[in-house]
Specification:
21 helices; Leukocyte receptor cluster member 4; two-stranded antiparallel sheet; 472 residues; 2 strands; mainly alpha; transmembrane helix; endoplasmic reticulum; 1% strand
Length: 472
C-alpha cells in the first residue's frame, strides 16, 4: 500500500471509535466538535491547499445569500468552474494540490450544489405556504436557512470528509438533533458492515501484487497472447472493486458508529437522499432503523445484477443519487441515451480531466443502448428458460463491459487506454455495436428501437421531486 493509502486507512479506522464518542455529545457540542475534527484532518493532510475548499464554501455561501432563486444553477457553475481551476493551478504557478485536497474538493462540490438546491426548495416552499396558508408537503426539507457557521460545519464535518459517502445538509441537521442517539443501533450494524472488509483488503493486496497495473504499459505485456491480455482487465477490475469495497464499507461503518443517516425503516430512505415519506415515531411500538441514507455500495448487486444500467445504481450509490437528482433531469437532451451520456460526461468531469475517465464513462451509453436493443429484440421473444439463459449471458457481458471500461478509469491517459483497448481489438466496443445492429434488424428498424429507448427513458423520468430515485 502507498503512504497515501495508509493515511486514508488510518483516518477511516479512527473515525469508527470516534463516532461512538460523538453519540454522547449535545447538538451544539457535536456540531462544533465535528467541525473542529474535520477541519483538523483537512489542514493536516491538505496543508495550504485547505484554502481551495474554504474559497469554495465562501463562494457558495455568497451565492445563496445573494440569490437563492438562482442558487442551484449558480452553485453548480461556481463549483465546477473552481474544479477546473483547482486542477489547473500549476498553470498559474501555484503548487499542485495533494490527493487529499482533491478528495475533499470532490465531496465538497457535491455538498455545495446539494445545499444550494435545498435552500432554494426551502424558500420556494415557504412562499407557497404564505400564499396558500397550508403547510408544505415537502419531505425532508429544511426548517430554516442555514447560517455561515452551519454551512461551514456541514462542509468540514469529519464524517466521510475524504471518502464519502455524500449526504445532504438535512441529513447532517437530523444527525445533530437526534433525540436519543445512544438508543439508536450502532455496534451490530457497524460490525455487520465491517465483517467482510478484511476479506476485501486481503484480496486487494494479493491480486494487486499478482496483476500490477504498471505491467499493462510495458512492451512485454503486448507480447503476451490475446487471451492473457483480455483476462488482465478482469483481474484489474477485481482489484479495483476490492479496493473500493473495503474503503466504502469502512466509510459507512464510520457513519453508522456516529449514528449519521439513521432513520426509521418506515421512512423508506434512499442512499444520498434520505427519507422519501413523512414519518413520525410511534411511542407504543419498538422502532426499527436502517442506515440506507449513507449506503454507498451494494457489493453483491454490483457483482451480480444483470444490466449495465443497474450496475451503476449499486456503485457509489450516494453520488449516483446526486447525479440523477441534480444532473440527469436538467440534461439538454430528451432521448434517454443522450441524457445518460450527458450525465456520464458530467460524472467524468467531476472525477477529473484525464482522458481515460471520458473514454470510460462515455462508453456506458453505448453499452446501455446495446443491452436495450437486445432486450427488446431477443429477450422479449424468449420463454422463461430462454430468458434465464439470456440473463446469464447478459450478466457475463455486463461484467466484461465494466472490466473494459475500468481500464480507462485506472490507466487515465488516452494513449495508455487506447493502446490497451487496441491490444484486445476494441472487443467490447465491437460487441456493443454488433448488438445494436442485430437488435435493430431483428426488431424491424428504428421505430421499434426508439420505442424501446423511450420506454427506458420513461423509467428514468419516473423520478420523485424530493428524492430523485429511479423506480422500476
Amino acid at each position: 500500500m502507498s503512504p497515501d493509502e495508509l493515511v486514508y486507512l488510518g483516518i477511516l479506522a479512527a473515525s469508527i471509535p470516534a463516532g461512538f464518542l460523538f453519540r454522547y455529545l449535545s447538538p451544539p457540542v457535536k456540531q462544533g466538535a465535528a467541525l473542529l475534527l474535520g477541519l483538523s484532518i483537512t489542514i493536516a493532510t491538505c496543508h495550504i491547499h485547505t484554502l481551495h475548499s474554504l474559497v469554495t464554501v465562501i463562494g457558495t455561501w455568497i451565492i445563496i445569500k445573494s440569490s437563492w432563486r438562482h442558487a442551484p444553477a449558480l452553485s453548480l457553475s461556481w463549483t465546477f468552474v473552481y474544479l477546473l481551476f483547482f486542477r489547473l493551478v500549476t498553470w498559474f504557478g501555484l503548487p499542485p494540490p495533494t490527493p487529499f485536497a482533491n478528495a475533499v474538493q470532490l465531496l465538497l462540490t457535491l455538498k455545495m450544489v446539494s445545499l444550494a438546491n435545498e435552500v432554494n426548495s426551502f424558500h420556494t416552499e415557504k412562499k407557497k405556504e404564505v400564499s396558500s396558508f397550508a403547510k408544505s408537503p415537502v419531505i425532508g426539507g429544511l426548517s430554516e436557512e442555514p447560517s455561515f457557521y452551519d454551512i461551514l460545519s456541514y462542509s468540514y464535518c469529519y464524517v466521510g470528509i475524504m471518502t464519502g459517502p455524500f449526504f445532504r445538509f438535512q441529513t447532517f441537521v437530523d444527525w445533530l438533533t437526534q433525540p436519543s442517539p445512544l438508543a439508536l443501533p450502532g455496534w451490530v450494524p457497524c460490525l455487520q458492515r465491517l465483517k467482510l472488509v478484511p476479506v476485501y483488503g486481503a484480496l486487494f493486496l494479493a491480486f494487486n501484487s499478482l496483476f500490477p497495473l504498471a505491467y499493462v504499459r510495458t512492451d512485454e505485456f503486448l507480447d503476451e497472447n490475446f487471451f492473457f491480455r483480455l483476462f488482465y482487465m478482469v483481474a484489474v477490475f477485481f482489484v479495483f472493486r476490492m479496493r473500493f469495497y473495503a474503503a466504502w464499507c469502512g466509510a459507512e461503518a464510520g457513519c453508522i458508529s456516529a449514528g449519521l443517516g439513521c432513520y426509521p425503516e418506515k421512512a423508506l430512505s434512499k442512499p444520498g437522499g434520505g427519507p422519501t415519506v413523512n414519518y413520525s415515531p410511534d411511542p407504543t411500538a419498538e422502532e426499527k432503523y436502517d442506515f440506507k441514507t449513507i449506503q454507498n455500495i451494494d457489493c453483491y448487486n454490483t457483482d451480480f445484477c444483470v444490466k449495465v444500467r443497474h450496475g451503476m445504481r449499486y456503485w457509489n450509490m450516494t453520488v449516483q443519487w446526486w447525479l440523477h437528482h441534480y444532473i440527469y433531469p436538467n440534461a439538454p437532451f430528451k432521448a434517454y441515451t443522450l441524457r445518460a451520456g450527458w450525465t456520464m460526461f458530467i460524472s467524468a468531469y467531476w472525477h477529473g480531466l484525464h482522458a481515460g475517465y471520458y473514454l470510460s464513462f462515455l462508453t456506458i451509453p453505448l453499452c446501455i443502448a446495446a443491452e436495450s436493443a437486445m432486450e427488446a429484440s431477443v429477450r422479449a421473444k424468449l420463454g422463461p428458460r430462454g430468458q434465464n439463459i439470456f440473463d446469464w449471458v447478459h450478466w457475463f457481458l455486463k461484467m466484461r463491459a465494466y472490466d473494459y471500461m475500468c481500464m480507462g478509469f485506472v490507466l487515465l491517459r488516452a494513449s495508455d487506454t487506447i493502446n490497451y483497448w487496441m491490444s484486445i481489438y476494441f472487443t467490447m466496443h465491437i460487441v456493443a455495436v454488433c448488438c445494436i445492429i442485430v437488435g435493430r434488424v431483428l426488431k424491424g428498424g428504428k421505430r421499434e428501437g426508439r420505442r424501446g429507448e423511450r420506454r427506458e427513458g420513461e423509467k428514468m423520468e419516473n423520478v420523485t421531486e424530493k428524492t430523485g430515485e429511479k423506480t422500476d
